[in-house]
């Protein structure tokens, strides 16, 4: 299935966010297509989901005296994850999975 023009993908968006976007798209009078994909699909969770699970585990039992210390520690812990490898891997997986969806007319195929 080849799509022309602008295609909007509600990637890992919660339903209330998707509904607001759909209202806006209706105002654009159909000039944009929406790629049909279930909202909040756990199999296609964003890199942020995986990233924050690791962050959460690393913070168990930690106590911070103020917000500045929290921000500094969080930034320090997130910096290695922001490197190209982690994000690049997630984007490559996204491209492969959505290539499968496009080839099957918008339907996601489970492994």
> What's the helix-strand series?
EHEHHH
Count the helices. How many?
A: 4
Look at the structure and give the mean pLDDT: 68
**What is the β-strand count?**
2
What's the N-to-C terminus distance? 20 Å
Radius of gyration: 18 Å
**SS class:** mainly alpha
| Secondary structure: helix percent | 40-55%
Strand order of the largest sheet: 1-2
Poorly predicted sequence stretches spanning 5 or more consecutive residues: none
Count of all domains: 2
Form type: elongated
Main pleated-sheet profile: 2 strands, parallel
Instruction: Assess the beta-strand content as a share of residues.
Output: 5-15%
Keywords: Signal
Signal peptide: 1-20
GO molecular function: nucleic acid binding
Protein name: Secreted protein
Please, could you describe this protein's structure?
This protein has a two-stranded parallel sheet. With 111 residues, the chain is mostly helical. It starts with 6 loop residues before the first strand and ends in an 8-residue tail after the last helix. The chain has two domains: 1-39, no CATH class; 41-110, no CATH class. Helix 1 (15-27) links the parallel strand 1 and strand 2 (33-35). Helix content is 51%, strand content 5%. The radius of gyration is 18 Å and the shape is elongated.
